[in-house]
Amino acid sequence: MKKLDVENFKTSQILLLLLIIIFLLPFIYTLTTKLEFFDFSNTGEIGDTIGGITAPFINGLSAILVFLAFKAQIRANEIFKNQEQSRNILDQIKIIQEDKLNIEEVIHFMTNSPNYLAAPLEITILNRLNKITYFTSEIRLAYELIENHSGDKDFVYRKLFYLYVIRYKDLITNLEIELKKIIKHLHDDYEFNVAELLLEMEYIHRNLIDVNKYKTTANIV
Question: Which residues cross the membrane (predicted)?
């Protein structure tokens, strides 16, 4: 917000300076000075004089209008971009919140039955692992969208952070503990999938750790 205020202040200064110069030009052109070389008041070419007086005014005014239009377009593009990014982030958070995979039930099962991973491959167990990995990657995607957001990150980050902490953090942490306990006894069929899942979990824990991560002085005021 302060950055925007500074930009507006600078723009106002530039416009004010241009307006002052433009309004002074006609007086300068018609001013009788002590130096004959700079005396524009005694010109015999009335048309040229009028044209010379009005041209800078018109050109300057045109330049101001073009500048304002260009600046307004840039600002409009920035606003649209930020709104689109915010909408994408909120849509991604909604996917996590709705939990159409019933991921809580899947995580509970895997947390309470880690010994399945020490046995040869079972498709149902592999599918459960893949569901959890997919779900954690959805959380990761939401975070990365926030990280790349060019607007205010604090609101959308807090929304994701509290959803994760309230609903999923304990579930994911408990499963991570159980997976690490059995890591030495994993069957070869599950090694890659479990390693991939653990990487996703560690990424989430590392980046969704501080609710004030994107909080600034402007957010507090």
Answer: 12-29, 49-70
